[in-house]
Design goal:
Elements lengths: L1 H26 L5 E15 L2 E12 L2 H21 L7 E3 L3 E10 L5 E19 L2 H9 L2 H4 L4 E4 L3 E3 L3 H26 L3 E10 L3 E4 L11 E2 L5 E15 L1
Parallel strand pairs: 9-10
Antiparallel strand pairs: 1-11, 2-5, 2-6, 2-7, 3-5, 4-5, 8-11, 9-11
Length: 245
């Protein structure tokens, strides 16, 4: 009887061991595959190769015809100045003349508005310089006081800087960011005693362009600096790989 009981117990123990082993192998298979998500960045510095500089000049007169005559004279002064500094006609673009009435608001002794008094006209015209000769245009923009000394009421705006090779630059940044992310994933796998598997997904971030050493912040929608001649461009790539033990 004791031998029968011992035999039944042994069989039960063997069955329990087999079932437990089967359960463990299914929960923790030998070829277990995990996943790793990494972020890589591509970054480069570059100089702008296109400059856009704009200015505006104005004239006021109570007679519209005289005002047009005077602003045309100012246009000639501005154009002659720009050409004398080495700019070509193809680089100089004049906008249309804009006309605004100048009115003075009239008030009663009690401070209520009782009407307007016509004072004259203000005419304004904008000029835009677009050139690949960044050094030349920067120099001309600093010499604009010569126009002011000629009696022209000229308002100069800050130059804007662009880069014509942006498409190729972006492709290069994507390549650098992808390589950076892959290297990070390989190191994670190696330090974990595993092997890097196939790429599962790739997600590209937005292009960020800021002034070099400017301390500008990145934005979710991307940053595109136009105020700095020297810029830093960067882009990120989020990659997901399989990790195989």
């Amino acid at each position: 009887m004791k031998q029968t009981s011992a035999l039944i117990f042994s069989i039960a123990l063997i069955l329990a061991t087999v079932i437990l082993s089967y359960t463990y192998l299914n929960r923790y298979p030998k070829d277990h595959t995990g996943y790793v998500e990494v972020k890589g960045m591509g970054q480069t510095n570059f100089d702008s190769d296109l400059i856009v500089w704009e200015g505006k000049f104005t004239k006021e007169n109570s007679n519209l015809k005289d005002a047009y005559s005077q602003i045309n004279k100012d246009k000639s002064i501005v154009q002659n100045f720009l050409v004398s500094k080495g700019l070509t006609d193809a680089e100089i673009i004049f906008g249309a003349v804009r006309t605004n009435e100048i009115n003075k608001t009239l008030y009663s002794n009690e401070g209520k508005i009782i009407g307007d008094e016509f004072l004259g006209y203000e005419l304004s015209q904008q000029v835009m310089i677009e050139s690949n000769d960044v050094d030349k245009v920067e120099k001309v923009s600093r010499l604009i006081t010569e126009v002011l000394n000629s009696g022209v009421r000229f308002y100069s705006f800050e130059p804007r800087y662009y880069f014509s090779g942006l498409s190729n630059l972006k492709i290069d940044l994507i390549s650098k960011a992808t390589e950076d992310a892959r290297i990070r994933a390989e190191k994670i796998a190696m330090n974990s005693g595993a092997e890097l598997g196939d790429l599962i997904s790739a997600d590209m971030g937005v292009l960020q362009i800021v002034g070099q050493n400017s301390g500008e912040s990145y934005s979710w929608g991307g940053t595109f600096n136009t105020s700095s001649r020297k810029k830093t461009a960067s882009i990120t790539m989020d990659l997901e790989y399989k990790i195989e033990n």
